[in-house]
TrEMBL record, chain A:
GO terms for biological process: transmembrane transport. It comes from the Bacteria. SUPFAM superfamilies: MetI-like. This is Carbohydrate ABC transporter membrane protein 1, CUT1 family. Keywords: Membrane, Transmembrane, Transmembrane helix, Transport. Its main location: membrane. Residues 75-293 form the ABC transmembrane type-1 domain.
From TrEMBL, chain B:
Keywords: ATP-binding, Cell membrane, Membrane, Nucleotide-binding, Sugar transport, Translocase, Transport. GO terms for molecular function: ABC-type ferric iron transporter activity; ATP binding; ATP hydrolysis activity. This is Multiple sugar transport system ATP-binding protein. Residues 9-244 form the ABC transporter domain. It comes from the Bacteria. One of its GO terms (cellular component) is ATP-binding cassette (ABC) transporter complex, substrate-binding subunit-containing. SUPFAM superfamilies: MOP-like (SSF50331), P-loop containing nucleoside triphosphate hydrolases (SSF52540). Gene3D superfamilies: 2.40.50.100, Nucleic acid-binding proteins, P-loop containing nucleotide triphosphate hydrolases. Belongs to the ABC transporter superfamily. It comes from Tistlia consotensis USBA 355.
């Protein structure tokens, strides 16, 4: 992978093209990016250094918003909840997805019908997923809550989403339900693309199937695993829709993830300056994390 | 590593089919420890299938494989401990050249396990022998085709304790100089192993040079299994004759005509190759074998310039091509659609279009059945040409 020569993509015709031609080609993408991503982001950074309440831009405030944010226990609570959510949901989705993908690689009857079906949770709008599980787990009449959760005695005749101790785990369950099939299919596609000959060589060398998995499949899949895992990690940290529908961050602040907190700061407390500061802090965190991670992966995996 | 269970590799009546293609049929072989069996044949003949069956990557439809007397039917590939060089290299893309070559030595079947020092010494030695020692840290994606093949070769060479060695076209992608050097080096190492070896190659001459015996595989069947000398001297069929030789034997198909004029072999297009009466008579004696293919080794054909003594009484042909190779040259003339190729001295002085006398020596002549293509033993070996 490291040796793919990108110079090959440069056509010899470039000598005869006008100089503006390549810029014209990337212009649509760049204009879209600037308008819908860069400008709003820079504006958010700008706001985060100002007083802004009730939609009126106030005076320059320096790091006041950041100071307020970092001394806000609700902010730290949201970060801790997000960390717990990601630490449980992503590894679960990752491992279940990989196990499922390996099973899909075996000759199963009806696989071609199964694969599109597996995509259903991932293709559903998160709002719909939220509503679906709200109904399934509704207290005293939800299909799953009356038949499974209440007999187990976990919660009384209330929704599991109303339990301060269990609501977060219920949200994790919903996230796993929604995203495991996506991981499974992404990994399945990666497994299908692996070369078959190294496995033959490994078999002749004397490797057991388990060794072939750990010494061949995992290393050869590593670039894909890293990219998919990283995407899922970032996405899980930012999860909003299903939480907004299912718990709204409650009970209390027990499921208040940063994105939910930012929403509340903006549209309930109308403290847009501090909400922007929160957005910038989360961005900085991931920017640093992704860079470190990418450099590590590049060095360790001989990839990218 | 010499305590590895090893011994004769025997194949009996082995057949393998892939869909409509009979890849191997009725293959019977026995290879002794220390022996190198060269398997040659055109592409698609079943060479790779043969290797894969022995390695355990495929199961035969019929027949039996035994190694050292033990039936291999229930032994999975990973327990056979065969050293296998894949035609497609099958390198591990995420491992360095060194780790690729070392991989079989790190496998769990290795008994006793090598110490780290001995392992790296053996691997480095193999890489150095193959001229890729300086590439030890590279990844396969950063190598050329020939370099990849040498990594695959190193992987097979380090397995001194293998129960059998299978080299599927091991040097086909190397440049000529390296090929010449490595042929002998590899052969030497295989002979030193207490295990049978198979060396597959589409190049008939390479097969002759590396094999203690040579199996010619055509359309999944063993056409001839013999010593290199025997195959060189007496190919069992037209199909073997086409694969072997430098240049290969010239083959002229036709019918023996006797009656009007001097006896001759008349080809489909009506061209005549004059025959010595005794040979024509011998051919006609074989009932129903009027349709024959005459095989002429390069040494059996001589082109004499018309001015030379004795050339006047010979049938005349026109020189078609002249290819000088320094010490010798390959000169050809046409008889109908067939090409007669002779090996002459480098400075033969013949030119394209020149008319010359054609003299055939009985020593390098062979006769094949016109229909089956099998070699025919003539009643009298006094064959010759007028």
């Amino acid at each position: 992978m490291a040796a793919i020569d990108t110079d090959l993509a440069v056509s010899p015709a470039s000598a005869t093209e006008p100089r503006w031609y390549p810029y014209a080609l990337i212009a649509p993408a760049m204009i879209t990016f600037v308008l819908v991503a860069l400008v709003p982001f820079l504006f958010a950074v700008f706001i985060s250094f100002h007083q802004m309440k009730y939609g009126r831009l106030g005076d320059f405030a320096g790091f006041e918003n950041y100071g307020a944010l970092l001394s806000d226990s609700r902010f730290w609570n949201s970060m801790a909840i997000a960390a717990l959510f990601v630490a449980i949901a992503v590894p679960l989705e990752f491992m279940l997805g990989l196990a499922g993908a390996l099973m899909l690689c075996r000759p199963i009857w009806g696989r071609s019908a199964l694969v599109p079906l597996l995509f259903i949770p991932t293709t559903m709008a998160p709002i719909v997923v939220g509503l679906l599980w709200k109904i399934m787990l509704a207290g005293s009449w939800g299909l799953l809550s009356t038949n499974v959760i209440e007999p187990l005695g976990l919660v009384g005749e209330i929704s599991i989403f109303a339990s301060p101790d269990l609501a977060l785990y219920a949200l994790i369950f919903v996230d796993v339900w929604q995203w495991t099939p996506f991981m499974m299919l992404a990994f399945f596609a990666g497994l299908q693309a692996l070369p078959v000959n190294p496995y033959r060589a490994a078999a002749v060398d004397g490797a057991t199937p388990v060794q072939a998995f750990f010494r061949l499949t995992l290393p050869m899949m590593a670039p894909l695993l890293v990219v998919i895992g990283l995407l899922r990690l970032i996405d899980a940290f930012k999860v909003f829709d299903s939480i907004f529908i299912l718990t709204g961050g409650g009970p209390g602040t027990s499921t208040e993830m940063p994105s939910v907190l930012a929403y509340k700061m903006t549209f309930e407390f109308w403290n847009i300056g501090e909400a922007s500061a929160l957005a910038v802090v989360v961005w900085l965190l991931f920017f640093a994390f992704c860079n470190v991670f990418y450099q590590l992966a590049k060095k360790k995996l001989n990839a990218f | 590593m010499s305590d590895a269970p090893s011994g004769r590799l025997v194949l009996e009546g082995v057949a393998k089919r892939f869909g409509a293609i009979q890849a191997l049929d009725e293959v019977a072989l026995a290879i002794e420890p220390g022996e190198v069996l060269a398997v040659t044949g055109p592409s698609g003949a079943g060479k790779t299938t043969l290797c894969r069956l022995i390695a355990g990557l495929e199961r035969p439809d019929r027949g039996r494989l035994t190694l050292g007397g033990a039936d291999l039917a229930q032994v999975p590939a990973r327990r056979r401990r065969v050293a296998y060089l894949f035609e497609s290299y099958a390198l591990f893309p995420h491992l360095s050249v060194f780790e690729n070559a070392a991989s079989p030595l790190r496998a769990p079947g290795q008994l006793p396990p090598l110490g780290a020092g001995e392992l790296s010494e053996r691997v480095q030695q193999a890489l150095d022998l193959l001229g890729i020692g300086h590439l030890a840290g590279r990844l396969p994606a950063e190598l050329s085709g020939g370099q990849k093949q040498r990594v695959a070769l190193a992987r097979a060479l380090v397995q001194e304790g293998a129960t059998a060695t299978l080299l599927d076209e091991p040097i086909s992608h190397l440049d000529a100089k390296l090929r010449h050097r490595l042929r002998g080096e590899i052969k030497r190492r295989l002979a030193a192993r207490p295990a049978p070896a198979i060396w597959s190659t589409p190049d008939g001459l390479e097969a002759l040079s590396v094999g203690d015996r040579v199996a010619v595989l055509i359309d999944g069947r063993i056409e001839q299994l013999a010593t290199p000398q025997e195959i060189w001297e007496r190919p069992a069929s037209v199909r073997v004759a086409r694969l072997i030789g430098d240049p290969p034997m010239s083959l002229v198909e036709g019918r023996v005509a006797q009656g009007e004029g001097p006896p001759a072999l008349v080809t489909g297009e009506g061209a005549r190759l004059p025959l010595q009466p005794s040979l024509a008579a011998g051919l006609l004696q074989l009932a129903g074998r009027e349709a024959v293919t005459l095989g002429l080794k390069p040494r059996a054909i001589r082109f004499l310039p018309l001015g030379e003594a004795g050339a006047g009484s010979l049938p005349q042909v026109e020189i078609y091509t002249v290819e000088p190779f320094g010490k010798h040259a390959i000169v050809s003339a046409r008889i109908g659609a067939a090409l007669l190729r002779a090996k002459t001295a480098g400075n033969c002085g013949l030119a394209v279009g020149q008319r010359v006398g054609l003299q055939l020596e009985s020593d390098g002549l062979m006769v094949f059945d016109g229909r089956s293509g099998r070699a025919i033993e003539l009643p009298s070996r006094t064959a010759g040409v007028a």
